[in-house]
UniProtKB/TrEMBL annotation, chain A:
It comes from Novispirillum itersonii (Aquaspirillum itersonii). L-histidine binds at D84, M85, T86, R114, Q128, E132, R268. The lineage of its organism: Bacteria, Pseudomonadati, Pseudomonadota, Alphaproteobacteria, Rhodospirillales. Its main location: cytoplasm. Required for the first step of histidine biosynthesis. May allow the feedback regulation of ATP phosphoribosyltransferase activity by histidine. GO terms for molecular function: glycosyltransferase activity; histidine-tRNA ligase activity. Keywords: Amino-acid biosynthesis, Cytoplasm, Glycosyltransferase, Histidine biosynthesis, Transferase. Residues 13-314 form the Class II Histidinyl-tRNA synthetase (HisRS)-like catalytic core domain. The keyword Transferase applies. Heteromultimer composed of HisG and HisZ subunits. Pathway: Amino-acid biosynthesis; L-histidine biosynthesis; L-histidine from 5-phospho-alpha-D-ribose 1-diphosphate: step 1/9. PANTHER family: HISTIDINE--TRNA LIGASE, MITOCHONDRIAL-RELATED, HISTIDYL-TRNA SYNTHETASE. This is ATP phosphoribosyltransferase regulatory subunit. GO terms for cellular component: cytoplasm.
TrEMBL record, chain B:
It comes from Novispirillum itersonii (Aquaspirillum itersonii). Residues 59-218 form the ATP phosphoribosyltransferase catalytic domain. This is ATP phosphoribosyltransferase. Catalyzes the condensation of ATP and 5-phosphoribose 1-diphosphate to form N'-(5'-phosphoribosyl)-ATP (PR-ATP). Has a crucial role in the pathway because the rate of histidine biosynthesis seems to be controlled primarily by regulation of HisG enzymatic activity. Keywords: Amino-acid biosynthesis, ATP-binding, Cytoplasm, Glycosyltransferase, Histidine biosynthesis, Nucleotide-binding, Transferase. The gene is hisG.
Length: 380, 228
């Protein structure tokens, strides 16, 4: 193996972003941050590493198995490299900004790292961008976050944005109501996760009776809400359903054309969520573009709702912004760069005098145009 | 939107299961082009009577991978494969009731440790060496009872391994048990009952719910009619 190969090798799941990908990533992040910012979400920036016990406290416990640890030589305490930023923002909101008026609107973007990739997404470092709305339990808060995330993705040029609304707490509530044994719950959970209606039916009454219907509650929003409405649910579950109905109506009002689906038994990826949750999909994307929902922030367990956008997945389904034309400036013309740039050109200055064939040089430097005798000429 | 529907790719497993699977596919109203039944055809992807539906024929393990990555939206594969990969991006909403067999542990009928103190009592084992196509399932199965399984990954002819001293046991699919018997092995334990499932890509089901739920319902009707 040659030296260049071995020097280029990166650890599994890590990659260099080259042009134009690195610029596209920045474009996605700045688009999202501008959109969230315009709706009153203020940006925060937590550190990359913090003490393990804070990072993995409460809702953060779900990210424990994904977190890299290092020993802090200064404090001699264990530190974790963040695998998710929501936890950090929740910590900021409930500690340093505990006295800030509620509801508190924060947004963020940054890199997260996880110990192991999956076969589907082998990346171990990726970019998260998100927003958190802390201190409001109103259905309008859920609707705001959903509409804002879906709207921001559509504004970036994602085609066919589709939001899947979920109630990860519904199944546990119903299990408690039916007083199912832990073994039965595990079996039921496995069957529901596979959407295996036959396996649910085999479990007999009372499981089959209720969950047999519930497992069919996945798909286009109107059909599913109608099916859910007909179910005779115990009070605690009925409250959650009614809440979902309110949120659907509010999201509809904010984004009338948005494609909505509901999946009443979906549970994947909602490890720390405590209420209505959602995933955002788009045709052609591998997995979800964003995920969010209700959770309890910090040790104070403040009511919060938020959303995390997976920037790398978004990059896979949007067209990069059109390249601006690149103009090669003659040696010594550097002073005119600003004037050209204000007309929309990207300028590339020649660093040597006396280049005989400026057109060939422009082509070599990947310029679309060059300046010769004060005139813009197109590279043939 | 009534423009031409998005392409739909169905991944089917090669070999034994395919024969059992095709009557269901046809009963669901999907008819592949003639080359599909031509054993000499080198084609890997086949058009059907639906202009937007294509069928691909791949190995059983690869069906799950194609569907998990969204390269195919629907597929048919055994729950042995689903257990091995545990892809979170897959749903397996329907047991097709075909390709029935079981995933079992087998060992030599006249093994070296037959009659020894710990033979046949897995609770006394700390470590076993097992040849298998299913290292994940095997490891989990034995780990659940506190036994560390050292898996030797083989892709076929597992039954040879114990006889030639490569390992003491194997984990493999068993249907009639005749291959085991012919190689001097006995089935000692069933890990799971296996049958083929209809599998669906998660994101596809979310983005195209009406269409894909429609196909799931169609196949469910076909299977229930067959069972009745």
């Amino acid at each position: 193996m040659s030296d260049t190969v071995s020097k280029a090798l990166l650890p599994a799941g890590l990659r260099d972003f080259l042009p134009p990908d690195a610029a596209l990533e920045a474009h996605v992040v700045s688009g999202l941050m501008a959109d969230f910012g315009a709706h009153g979400y203020e940006r925060v920036k937590p550190p990359l590493i913090e003490f393990e016990e804070n990072l993995l406290d409460g809702a953060g416990a779900a990210t424990s198995k994904d977190t890299f640890r290092v020993m802090d030589p200064v404090s001699q305490r264990m530190m974790g490299l963040r695998a998710d930023m929501t936890i950090q923002v929740a910590r900021i909101a409930t500690t340093r900004l505990a006295k800030a008026p509620r509801p508190l609107r924060l947004c963020y973007s940054g890199q997260v790292l996880r110990v192991k990739g999956t076969q589907l997404t082998p990346e171990r470092q990726f970019t998260q961008a998100g927003l958190e709305l802390i201190g409001s339990d109103s259905p309008a808060a859920d609707a705001e976050v959903i509409a804002l995330a879906a709207g921001a993705l559509a504004a970036l040029g994602v085609q066919g944005v589709s939001v899947d609304l979920n109630l990860p707490t519904l199944v546990p509530v119903l299990c408690d109501e039916l007083e199912l044994s832990p073994e039965t719950q595990l079996r039921l959970r496995a069957a529901l996760d596979q959407k295996d209606a036959a396996a649910v039916r085999e479990m007999g009454d009372p499981v089959q009776d209720l969950f047999g219907e519930l497992i069919r509650c996945s798909g286009e929003v109107d059909t599913v809400m109608e099916r859910l409405g007909r179910l005779d649910l115990p009070q605690a579950a009925a409250q959650r359903r009614d809440r979902l109905k309110d949120v659907v109506a509010l999201v509809r009002r904010l984004m009338p054309g948005l494609s909505l689906t509901v999946d009443a038994v979906e549970n994947r990826g909602f490890e720390y969520h405590t209420g209505i949750s959602f995933s955002i999909f788009a045709p052609g994307a591998r997995g979800e573009l964003a995920r969010g929902g209700r959770y309890r922030a910090g040790t104070a367990k403040e009511k919060a709702v938020g959303c995390t956008v997976y920037v790398d997945t978004v990059m896979g389904v949007i067209a990069p912004p059109a390249d601006r034309p690149r103009l090669l400036l003659p040696y010594g013309d550097r002073a005119q760069a600003a004037a050209w740039q204000s007309k929309g050109w990207i300028t590339v200055a020649m660093l040597e005098d006396g280049i005989a064939d400026p057109e060939a040089e422009a082509r070599r430097q990947r310029c679309t145009h060059y300046v010769s005798n004060g005139q813009v000429r197109t590279v043939g | 939107m009534t423009t031409s529907p998005d392409p739909l790719v169905i991944a089917l497993p090669k070999g034994r299961i395919l024969k059992e699977c095709m009557p269901l596919i046809r009963a669901a109203g999907i008819e592949p082009e003639a080359a599909f039944d031509d054993p000499d055809s080198r084609q890997l992807t086949f058009a059907t009577n639906h202009p937007h539906i294509r069928i691909i024929r791949v190995r059983s393990f690869d069906v799950a991978t194609f569907v998990a990555f969204g390269a195919a939206q629907l597929g048919v594969c055994g729950n042995d494969v689903l257990m091995e990969f545990e892809y979170p991006e897959l749903y397996a909403p329907l047991d097709l009731g075909i390709g029935r067999c079981r995933l079992s542990v087998a060992e030599l009928a006249q093994g070296a440790d037959r009659g020894s103190l710990t033979h046949g009592d897995p609770s006394q084992w700390s470590h076993v060496r097992i040849a298998t196509k299913y290292p994940e399932v095997t490891r989990q199965h034995f780990a659940a009872r506190g036994v560390q399984a050292e898996c030797v990954k083989l892709n076929g002819a597992m039954e040879l391994a114990p006889t030639l001293g490569l390992c003491s046991r194997i984990v493999d699919l068993v249907s009639t048990g005749s291959t085991l018997k012919a190689n001097g092995l006995v089935e000692v334990e069933t890990i799971a009952e296996v049958s083929s499932r209809l599998i669906v890509n998660r994101a596809a089901l979310k983005v195209r719910p009406a269409e894909l739920n429609g196909w799931i319902d169609t196949f469910r009707t076909v299977v229930e009619k067959g069972a009745a």
